[in-house]
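Sequence only, no structure available. Ideas?
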Amino acid sequence: IINEYIKIISDYIEWQISFVPEISTREFIQGIFREQEFELGNKNAQIKCRIQNIEMLPPPEFSETMTFQTLSPICLTLKRDNGSDEYISPTHPMAMTLIKQNLLDKYKALQGKDFPDHDFAFDFKVINEPRSSLITIKADTPQESKIRGFSCQFQLTAPIELMKIAYDGGVGSKNSLGFGMVREWGKFK
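Reply:
I predicted one. Tokens follow.
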């Protein structure tokens, strides 16, 4: 990384994306992205990319307590009185409440109903000191914004249905912007 840019010195890069799977997800994704070309970057630096291979990584063996490493920073926000966002660390006293509510909201959006168990075991423990990153979205445009996220390892205890949502859909908020992607800690490709 040089300043705010990533210097790519290889002809090939690996890019992982994650989302809650649906029926025929593999065929859908392969059909949309196979052999596609796109440009990645901003007005100051771009790279032309062509997708050569798409593979679906096997999910971990889910259990009610798992340890994760962030692949992209977790974004956790509290609303200030003026309506603006306050970005908080995963070590903040409200972090566990925000993560739990976010997973319950995602469950409801996916299933069309509230999570059936109202009294379930839930815990979120940060293992190492979170590293803060300020990410610029839509840099050098009128829509530019900055979002703070945190990278860390953590242990999550939750029902398996919510654990799958955390793994597939991301932890925290702003997942559609790339925040909150995780992998099982110690299980590297």
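The radius of gyration is 18 Å.
Hope that gets you unstuck.
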